[in-house]
Amino acid sequence: MATLLSWTSLGIGDLEVFMPSPPCLVVYTSYEDGEPESTVMYIWQHEKTGALHHELVYQQAVPFETAIAWAQEHAPTRDVERIHVKHARAKKAVERKPKVSAAAKRGPAKKAAAKKAAPAKRGAPAKGRRRKA
Question: What is the pLDDT along the chain (133 residues), one digit of tens a residue?
Fold first, then answer.
């Protein structure tokens, strides 16, 4: 029977890098609008080049436990000894607060001053000498 391992990752700044132990199966369950979405991925390493490869082998709208049971059942067919698992928490729907209008943010209007300074008068634009072409 395959060993279940928690999702192993390495944090590099804001980046989370998943570090699998190939060959392995990866079971991941996320939630969208409270409904589960489970996937199982097969990860293996090429013998000669060392390159990692992956293949999505299962994707259903089933709970986490069902996806793990499927992975455990199919692990021997791919000679897998490790199953990495990650179970995301169900997210609550975010309630948006109504936006405050710009007028409500400004507050009451202030009374204008009784006398306003008259704008300064400008003279006609100065004409410069024209150059002959």
Answer: 677 667 666 667 776 666 777 899 999 999 988 899 999 999 999 989 989 899 999 999 999 999 999 999 999 999 999 998 888 765 555 455 555 555 555 656 555 555 556 666 666 666 666 666 6
Q: Any alpha helices (H) in 1-133, and if so which ranges?
A: 64-74, 102-106
**Whole-number Å distance between alpha carbons of 116 and 108:** 21
Rounded to whole angstroms, the Cα distance separating 59 from 41 reads 9
Q: Do 43 and 20 touch, CB atoms closer than 8 A?
A: yes
pTM of the model: 0.59
What is the Cα Rg of the chain in Å? 33
Residue type, 105: K
